Amino acid sequence: MPPDLRHLTTTVAAVLLPLLLIPLPPLSATDHQQFREAPAFRNGVSCATPNDNSTIHIAMTLDYATPYLRGSIAAVLSVLQHSSCPENTFFHFLAPPDHRYNLLRTIISTFPYLRFHLYPFNSTTVNHLISSSIRRALDEPLNYARIYLADLLPSSVTRIIYLDSDLILIDDISKLWQISLNSHVLGAPEYCHANFSHYFTSKFWSSPSFSATFRRRDPCYFNTGVMVIDLTKWRNHGFTKKLEYWMKIQKRYRIYELGSLPPFLLVFAGNVEGVEHRWNQHGLGGDNLEGLCRDLHPGPVSLLHWSGKGKPWLRLDAKMPCTLDNLWTPYDLFKHEALFSDIETEAGRK
Fold first, then answer.
1. pLDDT value of position 302
2. pTM over 0.90
3. Helix, strand, coil proportions of the chain in percent (round to 5)?
4. What are phi and psi of 188, to 5 degrees?
């Protein structure tokens, strides 16, 4: 096993011991997000021993300060529950540096057997490149962390599946991992029926120098919440800098309105390895303004994605769920305040 990966697999033990030795302040149900412990998911007899060749690498962002953490925890559980070899998955979590302590405690208590590493993502890396978009959540620095995966992860990690926090898998992630990218850097479901021109402003399309970007390509929309990425090719061809270039152009000319998606379209659209649509049944959160309920797209389903404004945890807590939100509920490990109150009351009686 390469030294970089060996270091990752021992990191959890290294950080866990100090945490156990430090007296922890009591957690308040109202001030902290707490989660039930997930079951231990073990490999079957046919699974290879976890090593560099058999490991499936998954990247996600974690934000302890927002309800999106609840979505991330549900997504991790769904991956493990439907994996044929769950111990062969390794999670690479990107998070703000000041969230590290609380996130480590949360991950270790919720998933005691999880193989993972937590990487600090500093907002100063990207703050100066972010332009305001049509929805505030899209402007958060962590939403841009996916651009820097090749820089943050060790060089021994050559392939990654990136997953958003507002989705669940209902199929074995190894099937997605095994797809061939052929000569491409990135694989994702493409939606060529979408009106591609809507993702950029009239200023973009009226400028010959900007619109020429797609002249030798046949671009299609793809959602960046589910991507398979060849990190070696990404590093070799400097795609982080190419994405940053378009973010600088945006700051000056305002050529799009949609956060971190358009730079990916500008760099990759038309050069994406198409993946079956079943791996990103997106848009379940409605649009970016109202977040109304939506139905599934026709066809088989392996992954449900609540992209858009409406999130299942918010609609469920408001007692106004969409029908498909109920499919997310079995993966929700969040401990609700009412449950804490009942436990505290019962303890007081004893």
1. 98
2. no
3. 45, 15, 45
4. -165, 155
